Amino acid sequence: MKKYREDPEGFSIHIARNNKGRKIPEAVERNIIKELDIEKSLIEDKQMPVKSYNYSYIKDQIFDKYRHKVSLPTVIKRAKDNGFYFPKPKKKSHDREVTTNYVGELIQHDSSYHKWSPYAESKWHLITSLDDHSRMLLYADFVDRETSWDHIAALKDVMEIYGVPFSYYVDNHSIFRFVQGRDSFWRKHYKVTDESDPQWKQVLIDCNVKTIYALSPQAKGKIERPYGWLQDRIVRTCARERVETIEQGKEILRHETERYNYRQVHSATLGIPAIRREFKIRHPNPNKPEKLEAESLQPFTA
């Protein structure tokens, strides 16, 4: 403002750059192209649940593997310049949203069946439990074959470590709910939907925990987003580490779950899940405005 008042006619905001912009080393350029090429091979493999490039993952890989920091726009620009880019399709918004005010008020529980590594001989089931309020993954594990006992064991781990929640939110899988179809000419049914409780639900009833069922896949958006995040990173890491067994996959899963809970800023809450959960336990009143303390903004040390 002072310069403008002194010389309004000659004032300009243009800054003449005397030096060239910062350029990343050629070795880093090659490493970015190398990682993008690996991404392309995964996308082209029809058996893998990878449909698009994950540039944030590549940025992390450049730092974790090569110890060099690059910005996300730099990775995206190299991808566009070298043919490793296509726009992501628009996703449908979920038609029902579950909102909670307390930690443990609702646990979203689900499983996902995919081929998590191109070097694995079979697909694995990923079973997870997510706290709805903090978005923290309370349970995550791979199993070869999905059974009621696997899901009951997940209940046991969550309740022994984090306490008994108020309710669980699941889909209409036969492990979670008895759903009877219509009568046919050949068979008459004597029990209708929810007149019989599967073993998993019986355990929740014994623990005095309420069960809520999703009306559609889109209604489970909060558990699907962490699944998408985990799926992207686990598949890509398993491919780079040449993971062949489920035990090796569990180690990758443990590492990525730790990253998600303790280091990753959630896109919806704009906070780190573990820190959000810890803060809400200390400040449980939803009617008072939450003022985060300075130390609460720092990631936990694993």
Write up this protein:
This protein has two domains: 56 residues; 184 residues, Ribonuclease H-like superfamily/Ribonuclease H (Nucleotidyltransferase, domain 5), CATH 3.30.420.10. Helix content is 39%, strand content 10%. It contains nine helices and five strands. A hairpin with a 5-residue loop joins strand 2 and strand 3. The longest helix is centred in the last third of the chain and has 21 residues.
Could you say what the CATH topology of the largest domain is called? Nucleotidyltransferase, domain 5
Mean pLDDT: 80
What's the level 1 CATH class of the largest domain? Alpha Beta
Number of strands: 5
In which range does the helix fraction lie? 25-40%
SSE run: HHHHEEEHEHEHHH
Corresponding CATH superfamily of the largest domain? Ribonuclease H-like superfamily/Ribonuclease H
Q: Figure out the total of helices.
A: 9
Cα Rg: 24 Å
Shape call: globular
Would you tell me the structural class of the helices and strands? alpha/beta
